[in-house]
Amino acid sequence: MHHEVNQHIGISRGGRTTKIHAIVDALGNPLLFQLTSGQVHDSQPACALFDQLAIEGRHVLGDKAYGAQAIRNQLTSQGASYTIPPRTNAKKHWSVDWNRYKERHVIECFFNKIKHFRRVATRYDKLATSFLTFVYIAAIFKLTQ
């Protein structure tokens, strides 16, 4: 089991899964990737990903999963602003520019493009490094089309 944790393979009701976390720019071009096991919540690797980028003066769009106080604090402490809607069970709601939030579709479009590669969509690779390498290859291929 320890070996599978290192390979970012999680076990859920749907079987063995791996999540690809990505940050893209406003045009949908990928900037950064990270893998986690399928049962890891989306917000957990977010702070580590934001630490790897210079986001000062940038505007970050995210879905409700990224509305945790720690993530929002990190974004503002790094000089970035954000459009992240609060979860329905949030104790303190904040305002959201819903027109700007519509631009978040670029990340969904990016994932749709790289999942045309069956090897990315189904994770045939046993090793996480091999899988992540092919994610990069798929992204580069889509960027050059």
UniProtKB/TrEMBL annotation:
Q: What InterPro entries does the annotation carry?
A: Transposase_11
Pfam families for this protein: DDE_Tnp_1
Membrane-spanning residues: 127-144
Q: Which GO biological-process labels does this protein carry?
A: DNA transposition
**Per its UniProt entry, which superkingdom is the organism in?**
Bacteria
| Transposase IS4-like domain sequence ranges | 16-138
PANTHER family to which the protein is assigned, alphabetical: BLR1914 PROTEIN (PTHR30007:SF1), PHP DOMAIN PROTEIN (PTHR30007)
User: What name is this protein filed under?
Assistant: Transposase
